[in-house]
Amino acid sequence: xxxxxxxxxxxxxxxxxxxxxxxxxxxxxxxxxxxxxxxxxxxxxxxxxxxxxxxxxxxxxxxxxxxxxxxxxxxxxxxxxxxxxxxxxxxxxxxxxxxxxxxxxxxxxxxxxxxxxxxxxxxxxxxxxxxxxxxxxxxxxxxxxxxxxxxxxxxxxxxxxxxxxxxxxxxxxxxxxxxxxxxxxxxxxxxxxxxxxxxxxxxxxxxxxxxxxxxxxxxxxxx
Length: 223
What we know:
This protein has helices at 21-31, 34-42, 49-59, 77-86, 116-126, 146-167, 184-194, and strands spanning 67-71, 91-96, 107-110, 131-136, 168-179, 195-201, 212-220. By secondary structure, it is α/β, with parallel strands linked by helices. The protein has two domains: 14-43, no CATH class; 46-220, Vaccinia Virus protein VP39 (Rossmann fold), CATH 3.40.50. Strand 1, helix 4 (77-86) and strand 2 form a beta-alpha-beta unit. The longest helix has 22 residues, at 146-167. Mean pLDDT is 86; it is low at 1-6 and 9-18.
């Protein structure tokens, strides 16, 4: 059985063979990507930071003093955005199966959110007060076969939803990456049963050819 977190990507272009046509196309796309240039110029660790920045502008997710859990955080772009927004009075926990370099304003945990010991550490860090916001930009290693990739992606969504339900305080928020396809409508219905407001967003920084979207949920209702 493949461990759920083993499905996560280890980095952009990690499974491309150097010199192949697909690798050449990937490098050309990277070179022309305006969000990569912005990230380098503004000091963000990844272009993904601009996805969360846009979601925050539209849905007012982040504010000073919040407690935030970031799942699948490496290399740290979303955690950077969160840490800057919550400030010194806030707290950010960045969790990933891969190790991350030190990030000012964030507590880093390397581990699998499906591991009971790791989950216990996360919940202990959150404390009895609960988290204000849980973020998940987790994605599987994509094989290019939708019949394989979609179930893997939805498994990660389910893991993030389960952790959010355990960690969030009443009224808290949740953002999760979802690949549209089998299982995504069911996940949306499930979120609408537990949150007061749920919307679907595709930030400008999401590549047009990608099926990724984000479910943004606010107003968590404790069962």
